[in-house]
Design brief:
Helix content is 32%, strand content 30%. Helix 2 packs across helix 5 (143-157). It has 161 residues and is α+β, with helices and mostly antiparallel strands.
Length: 161
């Protein structure tokens, strides 16, 4: 899926680094890259995915699907003639908010293209002990409400809310 794959590529430039925030024994940092917003932590992949599942449920939302993108890429790596390990683990959680989706689509029906919403969790072989959680950035306007929800959920998954 494109969200996670945008982490790597020629010319990838960090657009901004926010304030580092203490998080238990680890540190979470917010950053933006290639149209994504993500947090970095030293929490394990399993701990972050568990936190994300709980944060989505605590928002009153239902997880529609979990895409195991990292497993798929690893499983098919040899089949496509690659030796590159992109992720140690990478899952993308898809879900929707009926209330928020209705609100943003009543404002502009073309916002349907953004639904369902996704939050990814991944680890990279180049950065052992580091887990990323994040989501795509949305255009100005009504979709910033969705972005705020995704940020709140991502931060809650890390214990920052």
């Amino acid at each position: 899926m494109k969200l996670a794959c945008n982490l790597k590529g020629p010319g990838a430039v960090a657009l901004g680094l926010a304030v580092l925030m203490p998080l238990g024994t680890g540190v979470a940092a917010q950053d933006q890259l290639n149209g994504m917003v993500y947090y970095t932590t030293d929490q394990s992949f399993d701990d972050v995915t568990f936190g994300l599942e709980n944060a989505i449920i605590e928002e009153g939302l239902v997880i529609d699907h979990v895409s195991h993108t990292g497993e798929m890429l690893e499983r098919t790596r040899a089949d496509v003639g690659s030796e590159v390990v992109i992720f140690e683990a990478a899952d993308i959680f898809s879900f929707c908010s009926a209330q928020l989706s209705r609100e943003v689509m009543e404002a502009d029906w073309t916002n349907v293209v953004y639904c369902p919403y996704h939050i990814f969790v991944l680890t990279r072989p180049e950065t052992p002990g580091e887990t990323l959680i994040g989501y795509r950035s949305f255009p100005e306007g009504e979709m910033k409400k969705v972005e705020a929800m995704l940020d709140r959920i991502s931060r809650a998954a890390l214990g920052m809310e």
